[in-house]
Each structure stands twice: as C-alpha cells, then as structure tokens.
Design goal:
2 domains, 52% helix, two-stranded parallel ribbon, 8% strand, 194 residues
Amino acid sequence: MNIDYQATEQAFAALGIADFQQHFSQLQQSTLFDDLETGRISRADFIKAIQDVVPHLALSTEQIETAWNAMLLDFPLRRLQILQQLQLHYDLILLSNTNEIHEAAFNEVLRSNHGIPNIGIFFDKIYLSHRVGMRKPDKEIFERILTDTGFDPKQTLFIDDSPQHIAAAHALGIQTIHLEKGMTMEDTIFLPKQ
C-alpha cells in the first residue's frame, strides 16, 4: 500500500493540532502507538488518549480516525497482480506492523477500489502486529513465523522498507531486500520478462 505519513500530520493540523509532531512525540514516549500496534489497547482507548491530549478541541471518534487513516493512500493494481502471480508459485506471508483502525481502513480501500474483501486473500497467512501481540523488528515475531511455517530462513525472502526490520530478519539468516525510498515492488524487484 502507498503510505504518506505526513498526510496524517497534515490532517491532524487541519483539526487544530498544529503541533502534532510535538504531541506525537509525547504520545510516542507514553507507548500509546506501540500499545495500539500490539493490541494491548483498544481502538476506543487510543481515541480517548488522543482526545485527552487536546480536550479543548472536542474531537469526535470519526475525526480522529479519519485523520489517523489519512496516511493510507491506495493499493496500486499492478502490486496486487504481482501478489496473485507470486502466490501461484510461492508461499506468501504478510507481516505488518498495523493496528485495528488501519486494518479496517485498508481493507475498505481494497473493497471500494478493487472489489476485494480483504488483504488476506493474497497471502497464505497474515501476521498483523495488533492481532499477534508482537511487532517488527522484535526477533520473536520472525521466529514465530519460521516456527509456524517451517520455512528455512535461507530459502525465505523478506522485503521491507525499514532498515531495522531488515536487520532483524537478516540476523536470523532470512534473505532480505530493503525496499529503499523510491523503490517499488513493480518497478524495482518484480519486473516483467523482457
């Protein structure tokens, strides 16, 4: 999925939180985001925590969720086609640091833009951090996936855009591709045969 983290910052600014980065930093230190991403707190707890930081704005649940989801852009059709093609020949696993608010939103994007019910249809198994209670780059999540699937790390390829996630997988012997800024699955890694 294409993501623009600054879109969320801008959306919160439009709601009146002009210093969202400062609030975000304070909330980050309180583990709010990690707790949401690992399922230790609910969607409602997260919304209340945001509301408590800026009580004078009286933000609704819908306003906060819309701003929070602003970073989620779209699923390019070519990427979805690549996943379908790969699934014919390989075991595909999705490991994502995400939360229940974003999961509902990105599945809605798939439904409304492509008529696809959820991201899970492209994978043999999905590991969403808020559902499994672990997140990247913790080695435990990689070890769990290797145990669950029986995958040989030397025969397993992990693709991610965060260097710390790549380093954690690589430390366990998993083959990796760091999807650096400007790289995409369709334009850099999985190219059509010439």
